[in-house]
């Protein structure tokens, strides 16, 4: 009787694979460096608008890094019905910057901000199942358009970094552009010619090479490292007990809806890159985690949290799909939040170095959107109009800053972000053109003669090319 070999356990999905520890550390650090500048920008902007002291600003930054790490762990590892369990980095949303600055400078101060943040986080948790049931309104036509807008909207951020950072004295100096170009070339060279493992940490290699060149050329300033404390712990309600003001809460509830809309696009984009479809339940779990992290932000002296689009591009570029890699990045962020001196070292990376890496990452996000749109049928329907108008509306606040300055605050909250403006437009136009009753096809029209889809709603959005001919 022939012996049968024991069956091998099925190989886990790439999202659930746990790489070796050395790979976890390298890949995780790469994610941290990709999002660090964006992560600390929100507390810097809001704190600067409120004219906080340097000590208070430093406290906001360490608190932000700590909660960023915790939020990332909740999203990637997950527990019960919290966490989408995909490689998603979490960070403070820029959609909340203007409302929070208005609340903070209008007399409410940080306690009023944190009260509104806590309420908005609770609202996000309650609304998460509702958004989960709306997933059918996010076909490839909408998600591809939103991801394209995310990538294109982020490119000016990388451009500003490459030029030296907004407000820098030498903004646009050739040496800054040259350093960013050097990092870009290193990233591309490593990705093209290096062995498999190194090619997956091409961004990290580019940043390290950029730092190696920046130090002797006097681009870096490590003065903040000596001034930073070794250990710092964020305590709940450090700036006082939260206060709950109606106008502040109303503005932050609008921000909550914007966050959930943007995050839905990010989840679906990462799910496609990772080969794991995001269903209604997973979407609700991820949005619920966003809400919980936002509540933690209000308690631990920081701000609302959302998926970071910067790292969506990194997942697509490196093709490292393990959620445990991003969980390792969350662990590193927790350390940076507890050890301010380490955070100061990372903060010393000059803006042009980040700019060179950002050009590749953000361009990858845009290219991923185009890849999704390649699955959409554009023949005999109005899908091209949906994409064209959505991209145009999304690019308006990016190309013409201040275009909505004369509009009400709630309108600016939604439309001043190119990502949220484009996302709302794509969803609305998809409803108008593909869910409302369609136009009756002309009896003997050209479209009918060649069998092109006319007025068929969602079928025209998602039907494969072979079936539609």
Label this structure with key terms.
single chain, 469 residues, mainly alpha, two-stranded antiparallel ribbon, 20 helices, 67% helix
Please give a structural write-up.
This protein is mainly alpha-helical and 469 residues long. It contains 20 helices and two strands. It has helices spanning 21-49, 54-76, 97-133, 140-162, 174-193, 196-200, 202-214, 223-227, 246-274, 280-299, 309-318, 323-338, 340-347, 351-373, 383-399, 409-415, 418-434, 446-450, 458-462, 465-468, and strands at 90-92, 305-307. The chain has a two-stranded antiparallel sheet. α2 (54-76) runs antiparallel to α12 (323-338) and α4 packs antiparallel against α17 (418-434). The longest helix has 37 residues, at 97-133. It is globular, with a radius of gyration of 23 Å. It starts with 20 loop residues before the first helix and ends with a helix. The model is unreliable at 441-469 (pLDDT under 50).
State the assembly state of the protein chains: single chain
Number of helices: 20
Structural class: mainly alpha
Series of H and E elements? HHEHHHHHHHHEHHHHHHHHHH
Overall outline: globular
Strand order of the largest sheet: 1-2
| Biggest beta sheet summary | 2 strands, antiparallel
């Amino acid at each position: 009787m022939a012996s049968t070999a024991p069956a091998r356990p099925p190989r886990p999905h790439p999202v659930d694979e746990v790489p070796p520890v050395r790979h976890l550390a390298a890949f995780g650090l790469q994610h941290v460096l990709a999002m660090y500048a964006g992560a600390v920008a929100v507390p810097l902007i809001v704190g600067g608008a409120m004219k906080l002291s340097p000590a208070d600003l430093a406290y906001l930054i360490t608190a932000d890094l700590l909660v960023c790490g915790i939020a990332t762990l909740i999203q990637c590892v997950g527990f019960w019905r919290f966490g989408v369990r995909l490689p998603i980095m979490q960070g403070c949303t820029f959609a909340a910057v203007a409302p929070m600055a208005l609340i903070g400078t209008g007399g409410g101060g940080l306690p009023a901000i944190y009260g509104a943040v806590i309420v908005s986080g609770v609202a996000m948790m309650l609304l998460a199942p509702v958004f989960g049931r709306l997933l059918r309104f996010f076909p490839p036509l909408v998600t591809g358009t939103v991801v394209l807008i995310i990538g294109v909207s982020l490119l000016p951020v990388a451009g500003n970094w490459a030029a030296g950072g907004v407000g820098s004295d030498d903004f646009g100096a050739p040496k800054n552009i040259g350093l960013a170009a050097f990092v870009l070339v290193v990233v591309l060279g490593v990705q093209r010619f290096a062995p498999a493992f190194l090619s997956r940490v091409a961004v990290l290699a580019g940043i390290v090479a950029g730092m190696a060149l920046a130090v002797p050329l006097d681009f870096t300033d490590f003065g903040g490292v000596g001034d930073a404390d070794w250990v710092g712990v964020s305590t709940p309600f450090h700036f006082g007990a939260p206060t709950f003001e109606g106008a502040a809460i109303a503005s932050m509830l609008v921000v909550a809806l914007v966050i959930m809309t943007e995050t839905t696009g990010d989840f679906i984009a990462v799910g496609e890159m990772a080969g794991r479809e995001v269903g209604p339940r997973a979407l609700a779990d991820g949005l619920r985690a966003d809400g919980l992290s936002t509540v933690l932000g209000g308690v631990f002296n920081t701000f609302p949290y959302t998926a970071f689009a910067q790292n969506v591009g990194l997942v697509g570029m490196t093709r490292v799909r393990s959620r445990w890699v991003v969980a390792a990045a969350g662990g590193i962020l927790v350390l940076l939040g507890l050890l301010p001196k380490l955070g100061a070292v990372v903060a010393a990376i000059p803006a042009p170095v980040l700019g060179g890496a950002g050009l590749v990452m953000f361009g990858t996000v845009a290219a991923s959107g185009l890849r999704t749109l390649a699955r959409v049928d554009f023949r005999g329907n109005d899908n091209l109009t949906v994409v064209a108008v959505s991209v145009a509306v999304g690019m308006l606040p990016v190309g013409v800053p201040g275009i909505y300055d004369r509009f009400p605050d709630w309108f600016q909250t939604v439309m001043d972000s190119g990502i949220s403006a484009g996302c709302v437009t794509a969803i609305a136009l998809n409803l108008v053109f593909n869910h409302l009753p369609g136009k009756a096809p002309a009896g003997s029209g050209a479209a009918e003669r060649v069998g092109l889809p006319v007025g068929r709603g969602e079928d025209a959005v998602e039907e494969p090319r072979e079936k539609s001919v």
